[in-house]
Amino acid sequence: MRSRLIAVVLAGAVTLVGACGSDEDKPLTDAQGRWIDAFCGGLLPGMKAGLELKAQDPADPAAVKAAYLKLVTGNATALADAEKKLKELGPPSDELKNTHERLVTYLGESARSYEAAKAPVTALEPNGQFWEGAEKALADTSQVGSPEQLRATFDALEKSPKYAAAMGKSTPCTELKSGGQQ
Fold it and tell me: How far from the centroid of its chain's Cα atoms is residue 79's Cα?
């Protein structure tokens, strides 16, 4: 049993495996490279925390709660930071303006969802019912209108050899693709 947000972030990370290709006509600008790094960097802490959470022994509810709180707190911060950076950078190209807008919306909604879940999850007792209670708290505080927006962003970037190649060269994207093992 995993929340939709956790599943979407982990599924998005797996998608990066196919993101490679050659450069298009115009070379990647510094701002476009920072956009790619901000995008992947915003997802990386949540992916790492999600993997750590999955690795916890359900027989140790205190450890599960600690890992779940790390996931909630880490995602709230990382997604909000990524939203801010991407807003400051603006769309990486005219062709990706709609993708950029969808991504910024998704990141903001996700960050607010995790932030809103902090207090309810913290208040839960670390017992056998913690996981179900935490999942309910996260679902109840979710403000994400379209979780498929993250998948649409990966799809749009994969269609561009230039951005797919940039993702293959980006340290945060490479780490995300490798499952946090770098």
Answer: 7
| Residue bearing tokens 């993101």 | 19
> What would the two tokens of residue 56 be?
């916890």
CA distance 170 to 44: 12
| Three-class DSSP category at 126 | coil
DSSP string, 75-96: HHHHHHHHHHHHHHH--SSSTT
Please compute, for residue 39, the number of CA atoms within 13 A of its CA located in the half-sphere on the CB side.
35
Q: Residue range 32-51: average pLDDT? A: 92
**Euclidean distance between CA atoms 175 and 41, whole angstroms:** 9
pTM comes to 0.81
Per-residue pLDDT reduced to its tens digit, 58-72: 899 999 999 999 999
